[in-house]
Design goal:
The protein is of the alpha+beta class. It is 50% helix and 13% strand. It has six helices and five strands; from the N terminus they run ααααααβββββ. It has a five-stranded antiparallel sheet, with helices on one face. Helix 1 packs across helix 2. The protein is elongated, with a radius of gyration of 36 Å.
Length: 178
Amino acid sequence: MLKEAAPGVNQEAQRCFFGRHPEALRVIALTVAFAIPGVAGAFRGSQNKKMRAFASLLIAALLFGGIYYIYMRRMPTVAEGTAPTQAISLTGVQNDLLQIAQAERSYIVQNTHCTSLDELVSSQTLLMKRSERDGYTYSIECSGMEFTATARHAPAAADSPIRFPTMVIDQTMQVRTD
């Protein structure tokens, strides 16, 4: 409870209001303190400009972080259950499978039977410099003039949230993920 009333304010009204809302007294005291030119002048000038620049930088960083977070969450994935960061690697694997299938189809047209991946590379029907990409290894199963090219990755660790799908392509040139 207040001992003295502020000048020009009804003492009974002041006791009643500030008795129920003691935080209002603190707000009024701070407002009056900053309204005095000597006190308020200490917070003006170069410090105010620096704080505005800092606040602007902070807002820009939060905005950028929010946009980045939303973008990464909505980034498309190549296969269900894979991480968005795998998209480049999985797209490369799909392209490799398409090259292998196209080379196998060309080999079948020339030789009337399918062949292994090593034979495609050695006959220069397939111009791949390596037989794997980012942990995926390729294999071909033949049966007469039909083939299935498969890209497999070693299983991920049991506690890993990342999934490595197996990709398959056949003479229809459609890549499927399993």
